[in-house]
Amino acid sequence: MKKIGLFLLAALTVVGFSACNDDDGDYPTSNPLITTVCPLDGGDYYFQRDNGDKLYPSDKTRVPGYRPEDDGTKQRAIIWFSLLDETVPGYRYNIALYAVEEIYTGTSEIVEDAAQLEELGDAKTGYTLGTFNLSREWLTFYANYAMHDYSCHTFTLVLDKTGTTEFENTDENYLNVVVLHDDGGDSRGYDSGSYVSFDLTPLATELDGKKGINLLLPTRDNGNKELKLDLPQEE
Q1: Any idea what DSSP says for residue 206?
Q2: 189 Cβ partners below 8 Å, 6+ apart?
Q3: Distance CA 2, CA 31 (A)
Q4: Quick check: is 35 in a domain?
Q5: What are φ and ψ of residue 135, in 5° steps?
Q6: Is the same domain home to 57 and 25?
Q7: Coil, strand or helix at 15
Q8: Which helix (H) or strand (E) holds 88?
Q9: Does the residue 60 lie in any domain?
């Protein structure tokens, strides 16, 4: 099996790939990863790792129906694939694509108005340890929350400048941010969950010079939890 150092998934049981079976003789041989979907002209597309490496799926025969939206918004997705030997100019990796699962892609905001902060929701959000990945552009992790319909739920990563959110582990080297969750009235059932990924572009100036973020997650069973996440070291 060929392997490359990618952002790997630690909770694959929630997004298992049913075709990965030695008996059928056709299955992905590289570990799945979370990427950014990048549309090209004519409905074509490629994927980008958080470190900037590009993966071009020259073999899309197993996913003939996949077409990314090309509306200018960013979209994150889990991909299952195998590496191909042939090179494609302009791309770090050439791959055979087996499956694509788009995940919740949210944004980050600087909020200075208490009413706006309230509108972003106060539903609880748990998490799965070992699934956090922080880059200069993205924060991604597996969120746990009570739900019946995924489409009702929205998440926002907030830099709260209203003074409403209280942090216990403040450190000037880390940017304090909180995950706000609006469940859209859907709070039934046991905890389920999904991967969520936040675009950090709106916080780029605030993150400049910081070692990372201090992430506050209001959880249902354990109250407010704060996690310090380090940004990757610049080469």
Answers
A1: H
A2: 146, 147, 148
A3: 9
A4: yes
A5: -125, -175
A6: yes
A7: helix
A8: none
A9: yes
- The set of residues, in sequence order, having a beta carbon less than 8 Å from that of 138 and lying 6+ positions away, is 36, 50, 76, 197, 198, 199, 200
Q: Which of 132, 97, 112 is nearest to 27 (CA)?
A: 97
> Of how many residues is the chain composed?
235
pLDDT of residue 150: 87
The CA-atom distances, in angstroms, between 23 and each of 19, 26, 235 are: 10, 8, 43
State the Cα–Cα distance between residues 226 and 132, nearest whole angstrom. 13
Domain that holds residue 193: 103-230
Q: What element of type H or E holds 159?
A: strand 154-160
What is residue 21's three-state secondary structure?
coil
Would you say residue 5 lies in a domain?
A: no
Q: How far, in Å, CA of 196 to CA of 116, rounded?
A: 21
| Distance (Å, whole) CA 140 – CA 132 | 6
Alpha-carbon gap, residue 36 to 100, rounded angstroms: 11
**Same domain for 220 and 124:** yes
What tens digit of pLDDT does each residue of 89-146 get?
A: 999 999 999 999 999 999 999 999 999 999 999 999 999 999 999 999 999 999 999 8
Closest to 195 in 3D by CA, of 79, 63, 21, 51? 79
CATH classification of the domain holding 60: 2.40.50.500
Could you tell me if residue 1 is inside a domain? no
Compute the mean pLDDT over every residue in the chain, rounded to the nearest whole number.
Answer: 90
Q: Give the three-state DSSP class for 224.
A: strand
SS3 205: helix
Check: CB of residue 91 under 8 Å from CB of residue 45. Answer: no
